[in-house]
Design a protein that fits this description.
This protein is an alpha/beta fold. It folds into two domains: about 15-210, P-loop containing nucleotide triphosphate hydrolases (Rossmann fold); about 220-415, 3-Layer(aba) Sandwich (Rossmann fold). Helices cover about 55% and strands about 15% of the residues.
Length: about 425
């Protein structure tokens, strides 16, 4: 059992802590500033800022030592860093802060052990916010910052040493917390406002007690994914399941295509004819295929499901209620919006290589008409319940992904 934070630093209520990690220049400081601006009970304590203030204090006994270590791109001894963090937390707690972003810490396993020895169970560690960015992008940002920051370590030699230290000593910390499902990964590459969308949702999810990887539940959680043909649903669903391992992507269209291509299927020929006409397959067939796919994925440990391209009409929705009913928790609808001209262009481009019989101009126009006539009423129905998450599908996929990622976290936090 580790020690505990002194009663001078923490009184009767335990502070909540999120460690904030990422390579130098990944955007941690920018996002932490937005967190404390938006959430008044949070405070941002940067381990680096604490160390810089200490080394510039002429009365500090450790200032010169800290300065030399940082110039070398090495990590300051744990006992010094933890002591400064405890001091900063105590000061912020006096100002009514209850939650703390500890930025740039723990940087290595020694830091983590030092935290356990000094703070121990005197604080609730919610997990790690981990900002990811390419080394090239981080180096570019730091060199630009160095022209105005005045920081002695914002030069190419120190930057490269800091990258090496980060990879060798800090990444094992991320891996350690990841095993406990306590790492919230955030892509730091997009513009700050897009990264903020994800950060904001993550803070709310962490506070709600939802882990970065959802715990298994008896009932599967479902998000219906709707939008016109070519709105980008499939691309975004693929990114979701790559980022969130407990989610599975089940495309109603893929289920139907697989069934119609199965020579042993009694419904294959019927499905093929209906799809060629740009019409919607009878609900009982579609729901049966979706239920079968969900059962298979559940055996593989999946707990959350993206049902892509369903329900396509009110009949689909009624069949879902009849077959699945209360056997799943429907979190809502992810709805991707795009202009008809853009969707048509994307589908024709895809048709050049996809081999899909419905990626031709005649079928595309029929599908767009069906979508407007039959699927939009479904969106309106769920919107009346406050269960539609609208996402603009027009920008490049990476920009759409930043919003999608934040939306998944928001939907999970709401369910928790």
């Amino acid at each position: 059992m580790g020690g505990c934070l002194s009663t001078n630093a923490v009184s009767d209520m335990k502070p909540k802590v999120l460690f904030v990690l990422g390579g130098p220049g990944s955007g941690k400081g920018t996002q932490c500033a937005k967190v404390v601006e938006t959430f008044g009970h949070w405070s941002h304590i940067s381990a680096g800022d604490c160390l810089r203030a200490e080394r510039n204090d002429p009365n500090s006994k450790d200032g010169e030592l800290i300065n030399n270590i940082i110039k070398e791109g090495k990590i300051v001894p744990s006992e010094i860093t933890v002591g400064l963090l405890v001091k900063a937390m105590a000061k912020q707690k006096e100002d009514g802060k209850k939650c703390f972003l500890i930025d740039g810490f723990p940087r290595n396993l020694g830091n983590d052990q030092g935290w356990g020895q000094v703070v121990g169970d005197g604080a609730d560690v919610l997990g790690v916010l981990f900002y990811e960015a390419s080394e090239e992008e981080m180096e570019k940002r730091l060199i630009e910052r160095g022209t105005t920051s005045g920081r002695v370590d914002d030069n190419i030699e120190s930057i490269k040493k800091r990258f090496r230290t980060y990879l060798e000593e800090t990444m094992p910390i991320v891996e350690k917390y990841e095993k406990s499902g306590l790492v919230y990964k955030i892509n730091g590459m997009p513009p700050p406002d897009e990264v903020w969308n994800v950060t904001s949702a993550t803070i709310q999810m962490a506070e709600s007690g939802a882990t970065a990887q959802a715990e298994p539940t008896s009932k599967p959680r479902v998000l219906f994914v709707l939008g016109g043909p070519g709105a980008g649903k499939g691309t975004q669903c693929a990114k979701i399941v790559e980022r969130f391992q407990h989610w599975s992507h089940i495309s109603a269209g893929d289920c139907l295509r697989a069934e119609r291509n199965d020579p042993a299927s009694k419904d294959g020929e019927l499905i093929n004819s209906i799809i060629k006409e740009g019409k919607i397959v009878p609900s009982e067939i579609t729901v049966g295929l979706l239920a079968k796919a969900m059962a298979k994925q559940k055996e593989d440990g999946k707990t959350c499901f993206l049902i892509d391209g369903f329900p396509r009409n009110l009949g689909n929705d009624q069949s879902w209620d009849q077959v699945v009913g209360t056997g799943a928790d429907v979190l809502g609808v992810l709805f991707y919006e795009a202009a008809e001209g853009e969707m048509e262009k994307r589908l024709l481009g895809r048709g050049a290589t996809s081999g899909r019989v419905d990626d031709n101009i005649e079928s595309i126009r029929k599908r767009l008409k069906t979508y407007l006539d039959e699927t939009m009423p479904i969106v309106e129905k769920y919107e009346a319940k406050g269960l539609v998450y609208k996402i603009n599908g027009m920008p490049p996929p990476e920009e759409v992904w930043a919003v999608t990622e934040a939306t998944i976290q928001k939907a999970e936090a709401k369910a928790a």
